[in-house]
Every structure is written in C-alpha cells, then in structure tokens.
Amino acid sequence: MTFLLKLSPRRMGLLIIGVPMLLALFYYLFFAADRYVSEAIVTVRQSTQEQNPLPGAALLFAGINPPSREDTLYLRQYIHSLEMLRRLDASLGLRAHYESETVDPIYRLYKGTSQEWFLEYYRNRVEVLFDDVSSLLTVRVQGFEPEYAQKVAKAVLEECESFVNAFSHRIAREQMRFAETELQRAAGRLQTAKSELLVFQTKHRLLDPTAQAEASGVLTADLQAALARQEAELRNLRSFLNEDSFQVQALRNQVDALRKQLEAERKRATVGDDNERLSELAAQFQDLKLQAGFAEDSYKLALAAVENARIDATRKMKSLVVIEPPAKPEAALYPRRAYNTVTLLVVCCLVYGITRLVVATIREHQD
C-alpha cells in the first residue's frame, strides 16, 4: 500500500491497467492456441417391447428395463469416465495431442501428469450437457485442430454406441439367465409332482381313487336298489306261501347274497388295504393331481419366458440415436480474444477506480 501511495495516478493506471492489458495482448497474439469445438447431439431410444404370448410371462421381467432418460444419464457418466478416456487415448492418442508443444502453456497438458489430473483435464476438454426436458445429450469436444476435434467426437459416439449395445445385451443375458433358472426350477417342481403322484398310485395300487370311488358309489346304489326290490318281492311271497316253500327259500338266498355283496362293497369303499378310507385317498390323489397340474402350467410359463428372452437377446432393445452428427469446425470458438480482452479491461478499470479511492482516502486521513 505504501508503494501505491507513492505512485502518481498516471503510473498507477499503467500498473493496474496497462501492464495486464499488455500481457493479455501479448498472450493472445503470440501464445494462445486456437481451440476448435465439434458438437454432437444424441439420445438413447428404448425399443418397443413385443407382446408376450402368455400374459403372465411379462411378470418375470417387470421393472428390468430402465427408461430412455436413465440410459441417457448413464451415457453421460460413461463419457466422462476413466474407461472412456483410456479407450480414446489408446485409439487417438489424446495425451500426445494435448501435450503438444504447439499448445500454449496455460491450456497444455504437461508430460508426466497423473491419471487423475489427466481425467480432470479431459473432462474440461469434453463437455457433456443433458437436457432434462427432451432427454437429449449434447457432446462438445475441444481440440487444437479442427480435424482432430471432429475425430474425437466421432470416436466418442462410436464408444457410446458400443456401450449402449453392450448394456442392452447384458440386460438381455441377465433376463435369459433368470428365465433359464426359473425353467430349471419349474422342471424340477414338475418332476417332483409327477414322482409323488406315481408313488401314490403304486403304493395304493390305485390308478385313480376318485374314479374308483365314483364307480364304487354307483355299484353300491345299484345293489341297494336290487336289494330293495328283492326284499319287497320276498315280503310279497311270504304273504301267501310258507317259509319252507322253494320260492321263498330261493328268494331269501338271493336277498342274503345281495346283502353280503352290498356289505362288501361298502367295506371296500371305506377301508383300503392299508386301513385308509377310500375317500381320504381320493382327496390326497386330487391334491397331488392339482399340484402336478400347477407345476405343469408353471413349466409352460417358464418355457415361454425363455423363448421370449432368447428373442430379446438377439436384437437391440436400446439404440443410440444421433440427432446431430459431429461436424468439422470451420472457426475456433476459443479463446474468445475480444470478449476476454474487454472483460479484462473492465475489471482492471474497476480495480483502478477502487484503488484510487482507497489511496485518496488514506492520503486525506494522513493530511
């Protein structure tokens, strides 16, 4: 501050305004390298899903596929990722381009720079803007040569296309693995249900207890009807014949035979070889049959899901749509020499005015 108090307004103006302006003009005229910008606009489109042949098959994949907006956000992060930088550096030599001696010292990437600083430098040279309304992604690549800026922008889009395809196919493969796992489980449940049904039939020597119970019920009803008719006829004969008559004895023997047969059928319908009721066996058989039917339906559903996943795995469910391809820039956008020079002049004038005011205030108090 003492140094400033000794300066005249003219020398102070030269120091605060003239020197910075001369340095800026010298830099922009002799050192500042032109930076060209190649711009591209892209988005990720979600392919329309085909209708599944079975309504329940869609439940296996509900919520797996993210919307296009999320995919575009993933793409934005990937463009600024270290993996993208490594791929571009391997194919185009980014580090060598930005380390060129023709680049001015301020914007040059110095040799021996660490990976982290190189990534930060790359993110400053490759700008990615996301439009939240339209879900469009604008990629702006800066290069010190117009051809190189366009080449880097094209390479970025190619890597983005590969990323979207790989991401889409990875989802399809995950769907495929999930569907195949469900198919194996469904096949196992179906085999278990069939085995339990076969063991039940073999153990109880019954093909279909339900059908046998129904047949036994019909036979019992027929025997009861026949017994009722024979008993009625026997009572009728006893009304006018003796008990020792041939007709009465023959009819009585028929009635006794029908009663024994009816009793045997009733016993067979209620007691099995292992002392289980036939109705209980029929109920158990019906449960096993229902389980086998449900397992078969689940197997059909899982099989249809596998077929759908196989179809999805062979086609792209998402694709990169290039709205505006990268063009070769004709003029350098940076540095903005006139704008930066005027801005620097305004700032220097403000600093000069504030400094003059402070110096004048101090001198007034000293006096």
Automatic annotation (TrEMBL):
Keywords from the UniProt entry: Coiled coil, Membrane, Transmembrane, Transmembrane helix
InterPro entries: Bact_polysacc_biosynth/exp
Coiled-coil intervals, chain numbering: 241-268
Keyword presence, Coiled coil: yes
Any one Gene Ontology cellular component term annotated for this protein: plasma membrane
A GO term, aspect molecular function: protein tyrosine kinase activity
Residues spanning the membrane: 12-31, 338-359
Signal peptide location: none
Keyword presence, Membrane: yes
Protein name: Capsular biosynthesis protein
